From TrEMBL:
GO cellular component term, pick one: plasma membrane
Organism: Pseudoduganella lutea
Pfam families: GGDEF
EC number(s) recorded for this UniProt protein: 2.7.7.65
Keyword annotations: Membrane, Transmembrane, Transmembrane helix
Protein name: diguanylate cyclase
CDD domains listed in its UniProt record: GGDEF
UniProt catalytic activity: 2 GTP = 3',3'-c-di-GMP + 2 diphosphate
Sequence intervals crossing the membrane: 57-75, 81-102, 109-132, 138-156, 163-183, 189-210
Length: 407
């Protein structure tokens, strides 16, 4: 296998690193480290989460009112019983209010989380009051509390940390109530407290596994998408991104903000001869080295390097006028001409490249221009550079009306 030689002069060659640090997951919080990624993830899942949450809210409203029957059965037709039924109706109101708020603002993560938290806090608070007034039913109510904890951890989509806080907090209050009421023998009390701890532990494990699995799945989908847009040999974008409208989007942005935009089409000179002389593997190595240089010398998050054809690359340079594009092309031309790649046989191979630039000047008042025509204009300049002897740069500004889409 050919090994990559260092550049002459030394050039940082970025590898295709798909384990983007921003996609790392904080396993304790069960969230992405990067708040922006977490935000995108939550918004991506929001319709699904809201559908689940709305179902759980309706279920909670019906369930709470229905169980008012048990208050009447246990306490009879008393004021306390009706007070508890009233509290249950209040919880149903909170649930229905949450349901209404989510329906009104389906795109709001805050509303969704607030609806889940409000219902859980209200439901657990009322449950404590109900349990307080029915001390003889404490063992049954402890089991109910354990079941409600499952809903807290699993059924109500929420921030993992909030689920844990609500689950543990309510269990501490409930455990304290068991102890304070003093109805239970010490061994029964211990059993019920252990039951609550077990319910929390199981809920915690289920919730953290679920939250992590969802994020891992999302990360795999993002990485897969990134990979599908990349050329495996060079790590540059492939033509798919152009078909997906990369250049059209940049042209539209340049038009909106009234900025210039340049594209450079560059092509390694006599590449066929390199392949024929040193072999295809050596050709691949030089291609990868050239692409690495293009990526290293352009702005990482602004410019785009696309493998346009076999040994042909397209640079998309937003907010770049002709002089800026020419200066960049000259830096790349010189660096590549001076660099060597050490191929498998140990030989040092060097090559040159030619560059064609097409610049659309500031164009906010002009009609939209065609991405294809802009690339054609750069191709014509590249052809002129090749005809002019190669290892050269040609370029020019193009009138937006010449590039007008559909003309
Ligand atoms: N090693 C390698 N060669 C490739 C790859 N893709 C295309 N090629 C070769 O690149 C060569 C391009 O040759 P030409 O189009 O004749 O261009 P050229 O020899 O560079 O000549 P000029 O562009 O006119 O300077 C062809 O021989 C292709 O087979 C690739 O991925 N790896």
């Amino acid at each position: 296998m050919a090994h990559r030689a260092g550049w002459l002069p030394e050039m940082p060659v970025p590898s295709l690193d798909l384990s983007t640090p921003s996609l790392t997951i904080d396993r304790r919080r069960a969230e992405f480290d990067d708040p922006a990624v977490e935000d995108r993830f939550i918004h991506h899942l929001l319709p699904q989460r809201n559908a689940q949450l709305k179902g759980s809210l309706l279920f909670a409203a019906a369930f709470y009112v229905l169980f008012g029957v048990t208050d009447l059965a246990t306490l009879g037709d008393t004021n306390v019983a009706w007070f508890l039924v009233g509290l249950r109706v209040l919880v149903a109101g909170v649930a229905l209010g949450g349901h209404y708020a989510i329906t009104r603002r389906p795109g709001s993560v805050r509303v969704s989380i607030a609806a889940a938290c409000a219902l859980l806090v209200a439901a657990l608070g009322v449950f404590m009051v109900v349990a307080w007034f029915q001390p003889e039913a404490l063992p049954w109510n402890t089991m109910s509390q354990a079941l409600i904890l499952m809903a807290v951890y699993v059924n109500f989509p929420n921030r993992f940390m909030y689920s844990v806080a609500i689950g543990v907090g309510s269990s501490v209050v409930f455990g304290t109530m068991l102890a304070v009421q003093g109805f239970l023998k010490a061994d029964d009390l211990l059993t019920l407290v252990l039951l609550l701890i077990l319910a929390n532990a199981l809920g915690y494990i289920a919730a953290i596994r679920f939250n992590l699995a969802q994020r891992q799945q999302y990360r795999s989908a993002v990485l897969e998408r990134q990979q599908a847009d990349r050329d495996p040999l060079t790590g540059c974008y492939n033509r798919r991104v152009l078909h997906k409208g990369l250049l059209d989007a940049e042209l539209a942005r340049a038009r909106r903000y009234g900025t210039a935009l340049s594209v450079i089409l560059c092509d390694i000179d006599h590449f066929k001869r390199i392949n024929d002389t040193h072999g295809h593997t050596a050709g691949d190595l030089i291609l990868a080295d050239f692409a690495g240089m293009l990526m290293a010398m352009t702005r990482e998050t602004v410019d785009r390097v696309v493998r346009y054809g076999g040994e042909e690359f397209l640079l998309v340079l937003p907010e770049t006028d002709l002089a800026g594009a020419h200066a960049l092309a000259e830096r790349i031309r010189l660096a590549f001409a001076c660099a060597i790649s050490r191929v498998e046989s140990g030989k040092a191979v060097s090559a040159t490249a030619s560059f064609g630039i097409a610049t659309v000047p500031v164009m906010h008042t002009e009609p939209p221009v065609s991405a294809g025509k802009l690339i054609d204009a750069a191709d014509a300049q590249l052809y002129a550079a090749k005809r002019g002897g190669r290892n050269a740069i040609r370029g020019g500004e193009v009138e937006p009306r010449v590039l007008r889409a559909g003309s």
